[in-house]
Amino acid sequence: xxxxxxxxxxxxxxxxxFEHRGNRTLRLLGLLALTGCTSTIEGAPLGGDGTGGSLxxxxxxxxxxxxxxxxGRGGSGAVGGSSSATGGTxxxxxxxxxxxxxxxxxxxxxxxxxxxxxxxxSITPGRAPLRRLTKAEYNNTVRDLLGxxxxxGFAFPAELSGNGFGNDADQQPIPDVLAEGxxxxxxxxxxxxxxxxxALDSCAESVTTANEATCARTIIDKFVPKAYRxxxxxxxSDEYLALFQTVRSTNTFASxxxxxxxxxxxxxxFLYRVEFGTPDPENPALKRLTGPEVATRLSYLFxxxxxxxELTAAAANGELATAAGVRAQAERLVADPKxxxxxxxxxxxxxxxxxxxxxxxxxKQFPTFSSTIGALMLxxxxxxxxxxxxxxxxxxxxxxxxxxxxVNQELAAFYGLTGVTGDTFQKVPVDxxxxxxxxxxxALMTGTSVTNFTNPVRRGAFxxxxxxxxxxxxxxxxxxxxxxxxxxxxxxxxFSLHSKSDACAxxxxxxxxxxxxxxxxxxxxxxxxTENDVTIDATGSVPDMENGDxxxxxxxxxxxAQNVEVQSCFAWKWLDYGYGQTLSAENPDDxxxxxxxxxxxxxxxxxxxxxxxxxxxxxxxxxxxxQP
Amino acid sequence: xTARKFRLSRRAVIRGAxxxxxxxxxxxxxxxxxxxxAAPATAQRFVGVYQPGGTVIDKWRPxxxxxxxxxxxxxxxxxxxxxxxxxxxxxxxxxxxGEQHQAGIIALWTGAVQGVAQKYSQSKPGADNxxxxxVIASRISKGKKPMASLQVAVRWATGKSHGLLHPINALSFExxxxxxxxxxxxxxxxxWTALFGNLMPMTPAMDTALLRKRSILDFVDKRYAAxxxxxxxxxxxxxxxxxxxxxxxxxxxxxxxVPVTTACQPPTLIDTSxxxxxxxxxxxxxxxxxxxxxxxxxxxxxxxxxxxLVMALACExxxxxxxxxxxxxxxxxFPWLNLSEHHHYYQHDGVxxxxxxxxxxxxxxxxxxxxIQAMAAVDMGGHSLLDESVLFFGSxxxxxxxxxxxxxxxxxxxxxxxxxxxxxxxxxGVSHNDLLVSILNLFGDTRTTFGNAKYxxxxxxxxxxx
Lengths: 628, 466
Prior knowledge:
heterodimer, A: 4 domains, two-stranded antiparallel sheet, 29 helices, 5% strand, B: alpha/beta, Alkaline Phosphatase, subunit A, 2 domains, 7-stranded mixed beta sheet, 13 helices, 9 strands, 9% strand, disordered N terminus
């Protein structure tokens, strides 16, 4: 069954919807209309019948359906003939997969795409909106520029979660308090740096009235290019010297130098990652990045900080002008321990881990749980992922299914594991009749439960959105009321209204079957086979997956590891994080970048570090995309 | 005498009302003009206060009549200022469609419906429209005071938002095209320095420091202008927005010196080193964020925050100030109330604990009493700061057990714009957008709708706020 594309911006989505979301909103509302869910919608006008109809088939997969609608070229999605592989993910629904994505490109009279992804000759760099350093990047950057280890950027106000990783270039507004923070933090950093002036340059050790201008110039020419992550252009050094002299006329030498640092640390060349690119010699219509721009991309991608000396030298020598040169540096960077922090940061944006350290549960129902256990669960998952990516097999599929985990004595006791002593986390085999891999860990099961009761919908939504990139959203106007926890002995029964009501089934036929298998873990992640003395029915299914029916969490995680959407989505999330954007199913270049990276990920056997290197080999990375 | 009534200019009436209307009866000779002009002086200051987690409605609801309310246990602490508050009962957050707390906090000051996305989305990171406080700031404060507005928060972004600006914790939205959510200021000593760092008289050293600061900002200013001009339109706007904020700082520097007057008496900066304003906010944090020491300091820090906020107004640093008590997660404890679990736990993460929620709500009333009394104590020249201000107090839900957003516990205080207090006003089932537009009207903004138009029927008339 083909998915009928829905025209963009087709009519009003009603006052309830944000304009920019109109498209997706329409789909969801249309779906609800079709299934008669209007009773739960507060009067938001619905799209036309045609819209609703189009959703009856593919639209059940929501965001993914949108991809199909826009791309309208299942065939092209078949990168390298693995049509059911990447093709499945881009065409979205089960319909797309079962018919093999035969590429009915341009159905319903769509505007043809400017190029086809599979066409190797096409360069599809996507967008390159101006990125600003995040708080964490600011901290690392001043650490590496000036040896300032105080993490001063945490004084800046909250960032928007944006793409889920807090680094979305399209979601970096500049509130008053941030501009003020840039000034006051720069002043603090500069004061600390100029308290030991000789660290900036040895000329400061013996500075006199006669030579201080020369020394200031030396410091400027040494520091500012590093801060700007590029060589200075004519006149820039002079401007800084003039600032130094103005301030010096009524202040100390150190204060004059501090003014230079303060200005540099507030300048857009430092705070923003400015890219102008350079025409591609092979295709002057396109722009490649300059050496320093590539070095900056590489360094922030892997280490979340400013380029080191070796990268800067590589940029200056022209080594970063080719994909192979970029790869060589990427392989150096990914092997460095600093990349471990980046990987950890990525996973903590992807997984529901942030609230773990302050989860609370009813002590009567969960006497062994405390927020300390929550914190230990977080440590378990961190240790597991760190080992798995850097010291173990290193694959995403492995992460989902390994028969071991990391615990210390206290956490082992909580799980009922014996033979582990001490505070140090150690690798131990899990009982493979109860647990396998990341998703069955306490952190994930606790992090997807917000109360004393499990919520299969939350668990299902996490899997669909974060692991399958389906972007299922709560429809506007739907009052989400979890069922009365005492209404039935098991969650499946409590949530059974969803399957009884056609209105709800549209979304919940995807959500609930992904959540029910995890009912074998309670609200603090402990394994159970019964709830309120009733045996748990842990059957479920992976939506739109052939032979996707499962019985229990172990079968589910194994299916997920083999699921094309789960495999591709991991690469797509890395794109969002790595490129500081929300790549869009509506942008043809983005679709191509996603497909290409997903195919590479498959080629490298789903190795995470290799995927990170491949992030540097896409058109989006090597070429300068559209600058809005 | 009766032969000829002299007429005051309209300006004279406005001016007269602005300075003396509260304290003195209207001059009879102005009466015709009063009738012709109708509106009293517009409100001069806005204060918004947010309290998380709703209330226990039967303990909150007053009894008695409109003009003789009898306060229930939760509002009882406000008895000393009963004549200065207007209790708003029965309203519904109709624009708060959808999921639990976050729909409520987004709608509370915007009257806007939350986006489909759980996160603010790509092309429009904010709400559908600016929040009330920011619209008022554009009208009465921006460009007129050193700071367009002041947002402060206590124990904010606890829990799962983990320090990120998120639909579950943002309350103010910029009055610019993107309507981006605005992060509050958190660190008390930094707030004090930003507000009162340069008290008059200035010393020569302070002058030199200011001059130095200006040289740096001037340098930075030029760099943003030059680089911005070379960028594509959207990227250029980013740098222009940034430049705009730098210029605000530059302009503020010109007025940095705070003249200490009868009204302007900056509060003493007490030691708040036991309070970690950023407890649990950074992703690098490990371990439990249950920070009992910081929680223990909440009453002290909250009081300082309120005192600073009042003086920010009295010292003319800004005309719009907001205070957020935590956020919708409210994952901090209340050791001074002997409540060792967090607020959300008592709301429903555990089981709805009405006595604990009542105790917490009573404490918030006690804090609010302090704020109202502090504003009433400032003499602005024949009338108090409270007399010329409007305070809006509210929460994102009404009933913690169900996330119910009907029968919202809302309250106004102050007499700015002719707001009549000492009243218990019932608006059963009325959309709170009508209240938002009525508040705007107190500031001389004559619009008849605010927020999502679908949920706004126009200013409140029965009873009217004035």
